[in-house]
Amino acid sequence: MWLFLTRRFRTWVLLTVLVPLATGLLRRVGQALERRNGPSSISNGLLKAGELGDRARAKLRGGRGSRR
Question: What is the dihedral of CA 49, 50, 56, 61, to 10 degrees?
């Protein structure tokens, strides 16, 4: 079925559905690792990947992102 969708629609689905789900999953895994073992380079990397997705999504929506 994926083959029959247009390229533009496939790109839209990836950017609006799959990327936010993936970054949310990375953030949750990073938080779970931090709760279990404390901060580590792996948990920090996963959290940063989740934040990167949030900032990109906010920028695409016209927001300022997570800057303070």
Answer: 180
Note the pLDDT of residue 7.
86
Q: Bigger pLDDT: 12 or 25?
A: 25
CA 22, 26, 28: angle at the middle one, nearest 5?
115
DSSP 8-55: HHHHHHIIIIIHHHHHHHHHHHHHHHHHHH-S-HHHHHHHHHHHHHHH
The one-letter amino acid at 46? L
List the one residue out of 42, 49, 29 whose CA is nearest residue 57: 49
Report which of 33, 60, 57, 58 is spatially closest to residue 45, judged by C-alpha positions.
33
Neighbours of 42 (CB within 10 A): 13
